[in-house]
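#onboarding

Welcome to the new folks! Below is a worked example of what a typical request in this channel looks like: someone posts a single protein sequence, and someone else replies with the predicted structure as tokens. Don't worry about understanding the tokens yet, we'll cover that in week two.

Example request:
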Amino acid sequence: MPVFPSDKIEGQIERKYVPTLIELGLSEKEASEEISRFAQKTDWTQAVPNRGDHLLELAKRDESCRAAIEKRKSYGIRDDDIRSWFNTHPFEQICLLGIHGGKQRKTKGENKGGKTKGTFYFLCSEK
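Example response:
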């Protein structure tokens, strides 16, 4: 039960993540509804392509941006992590965070020391 047209990026992302949600125990209908809820969490229509590349370039000229990136690097985040995460479509970021959060709850924190958890947290956190 796709929510988005298959020829749009949103439809491609939906087809990519519905099976993951099904693997985590949701029915196909529940998985599609969850993707629809993820879609409502962000406005990706104004997304800037290659935001990660822009951030890394901005860090060369802007002290506050450089400080924020350096803080994340102190936790092991690399330029490639920043580039990869921020170049990802915002709707896909929401899906990844939603699925990752759901998986953590289902596994009761088994991934506490995992790099992925750290990467998501420190790339998205303002702290």
